[in-house]
Amino acid sequence: MKTLTRQAFHQFCAALAQVHGAPDVTEQFAIEPSLEQRLQDAIVEQSTFLPQINVVTVDEMEGQNILGSASGPVSGRTDTSVDGVERVPRNVLGLKAYNYKLAQTNSDVYLPYNTMDVWARFGDLGARYTRYVQGRIANDREIVGWYGLSVAATTDLAANPLLQDVNKGWLQYMRENLPANILTEGGTAGEIVLGDGGDYANLDLAVNDLLQGIPTYLRKNLTVLVGSELVARETALLLTAVQGKPTEKNAMNTAMATLGGLPWQTPSNYPARGLAVTPLKNLSVYVQTNTWRRNLKDKPEKNRVEDYNSRNEGYVVECPEAFVGWEFDNVKFSDEAAEPTGE
Q1: Which helix H or strand E contains 203, and what residues bound it?
Q2: Could you tell me how many helices (H) and strands (E) the chain has, helices first?
Q3: What pTM value is reported for the model?
Q4: Which of 166, 217, 255, 337 has the fewest CB atoms nearer than 10 Å to its CB?
Q5: How far is the C-alpha of 227 from the C-alpha of 79, rounded, in Å?
Q6: Cα–Cα distance measured from residue 195 to residue 183, given in angstroms and rounded to the nearest whole number
Q7: Distance CA 10, CA 121 (A)
């Protein structure tokens, strides 16, 4: 490590130790709860989607969802003048309790000396590196949220490039807790066909059908989450329909302003053929307080600095009844060529 780089690294370590009140960041240390929250906020700020949902600190590794929505009416009246009749309060969160379970999540990275040499010239090695790590953690949280299927004792990035074995994401939470709200097939077993002659001619019809799975009293602040491939296809079909008709082109822009009458967006890292309807604040990432630990190590034998981070976190759909979607891996387009069959 060059002298300038060594100085920058020592300054970074000293600043990190001062911020966290740790005597030596090259030994494992726990991040204090107040600083932990600031760290969570900084990670969230690196994402365009995470600020729209909940990132919540919790005390326990396992427990019941702490947010959610009222799952039924709570207003009414009881004639208490009748002998033996009393007012009976209702559980505002519904009769069924949903649980969460967190898992240790590691974010272990290293920075090669030659990269540090370059960054040290800019005079902001520590800040630049911190943004890099926080941005990557935010990105990973989104990926796990959409694609996470399991919690493996040892994850395998080669076999699971979309972090499917790091944690159970929001869609998996729905599959396990309220599978009826995740559509898996239409008229053909194992397939949801979109397009002429399929299960849904267009996205408006698909969204309208999914919407029927959410009780009327939970249809508040709903947003359609739609994959980029679905948006591109829908736009292409509309452009084809208005080709050569300038007066109808503006109408196309209006047609794409909503889907099924609801606002929509394509979250970063969202499955290309994904479709779901839910309030954004129905999605949460839970992080257990007092579990973020960190350790920096200078590894000259590897020509790099290693940074070990761990915390306990999990993914929660606060009110599963207010989430409906379809199994994105099962979505087919009606005009896709059928797989050739062997004779």
Answers
A1: helix 203-211
A2: 8, 16
A3: 0.87
A4: 337
A5: 52
A6: 17
A7: 15
